[in-house]
Specification:
It contains no helices and eleven strands. It is elongated, with a radius of gyration of 15 Å. Strand 7 (67-72) and strand 8 (77-82) form a beta hairpin. Helix content is 0%, strand content 63%. It starts with a strand and ends with a strand. It is mostly beta strands. The strands form two sheets. Strands 2, 4, 5, 6, 9, 10 and 11 form a seven-stranded mixed beta sheet that branches.
């Protein structure tokens, strides 16, 4: 089983910046995709940014040029640098990862979510 623990959320004024971190732990054989999703009250969870094991990234259009996703494969950690934050981006931000866990001889696929971290952007 693979666990994800997020950190870095909080309260920030509009136009400010925050960096979220998410560390994966457990019997990890390899992680393929890591990403960040967010869910605002009354809205569905949406993809914010995703990064592959090779470093390819994709972003939702609304954050392009302001958010940067990166990962440290050795630490099984993904980051989300968020700049020029807007009040409408207030949400719970969730980390996601998929890959294989267990043993290298008998790896099993996994897909895990973090518990979520609150980001509040005040106007």
């Amino acid at each position: 089983q693979v666990q994800l623990v997020e950190s870095g959320g909080g309260l920030v004024q509009a136009g400010g910046s925050l960096t979220l971190s998410c560390a994966a732990s457990g019997s990890i054989v390899g992680i393929n995709n890591m990403g960040w999703y967010r869910q605002a009250p009354g809205h569905e969870r949406e993809l914010v940014a995703r990064i592959t094991s090779g470093g390819s990234t994709n972003y939702v259009d609304s954050v392009k040029g302001r958010f940067t996703i990166s990962r440290d494969n050795a630490k099984h950690t993904v980051y989300l640098q968020m700049n020029s934050l807007k009040p409408e981006e207030t949400a719970v931000y969730y980390c996601y990862a998929d890959g294989h866990s267990g043993s290298y001889v008998y790896p099993r696929p996994f897909a895990s979510w973090g518990q979520g971290t609150q980001v509040t952007v005040s106007s």
